[in-house]
Structures are given as C-alpha cells and as structure tokens.
Amino acid sequence: MHPEFSPTCVFASVIDETNGFTTWSPEGCELKEVNSLDNTVVCQCNHLSRFTAGEDLLTTVTAPEVVVEEEEDEGSNTKFPIMILFLGILLLAIIITAISEKVRKR
Fold it and tell me: What is the rounded distance in angstroms from the CA atom of residue 35 to the CA atom of residue 16?
C-alpha cells in the first residue's frame, strides 16, 4: 500500500446482473483500521452484503452471474399437511363413534 492510501469501506448497494455493473455505497460501513505492514484493511458494517475497501469506488464492472431457478409447484407444499389434518380429524371421529357405541351398549 502506498503511504497516502485512503480506503473507503463500501458495500454493493445495486448489482445489475444483466450488464455486470455494481454500484457501491458506504452507508452503514465504517473504516476501523488500515495496517500497511500486512496490507490489510478492517471495515465494520451493520449489514450483510458484498463488501470491499478501496479508493474512489463508484461503479465497477463484474462478470454477470448466471442464476438458474427451477420452478417449484407451490401448491404441493401445502397439500400434504392439510391432508394429514383431515385424516387425523377423520380418525378422531371414528374413534369417538366407536367409543360412544360401546358406552351405549352397556
């Protein structure tokens, strides 16, 4: 690091996956330490995201990331618990009917 190195701690506030542009913002980030002996910068931020420290970071170009999402049938996730609930109610009704029949016969 050169002696005049004055980094800014920033996070990726806007990431445009279509063109690879990243906009960096210092909001919520604070520079804690610059150690020129081991070339490290320590930042403290109050949120999780992509972070970096450097000088004059406004917009950088990164390679676009390809994300493949598989469509999931959202209805199937809720059908199973409802079926179990109805089966439980049906079983409870059968048990109550059988017990009440035994009580009447006595």
Answer: 32
> Is the pTM value of this prediction over 0.85?
no
DSSP-assigned letters across all residues of 12-74:
EEEEETTTTEEEEE-TTEEEEEEETTTTEEEEEESS-S-EEEESS-SEEE-PPPP-------H
Q: What token pair was written down for 40?
A: 């490290």
| Integer-rounded Cα radius of gyration of the chain | 30
Burial class (CB in 10 A: 0-12, 13-18, 19+), 55: exposed
Say if CB 10 and CB 51 are below 8 A apart: yes
The model's pLDDT over 29-86, given as tens digits with 9 standing for 90+, comes to: 888 888 878 888 888 888 887 877 776 654 444 555 666 666 665 555 667 788 888 8
Query: The tokens 């279509």 sit on which residue?
Result: 18
Give the start-to-end residue ranges of the domains of the chain.
8-61, 77-106
**Distance between CA atoms of residues 60 and 19, nearest Å:** 11
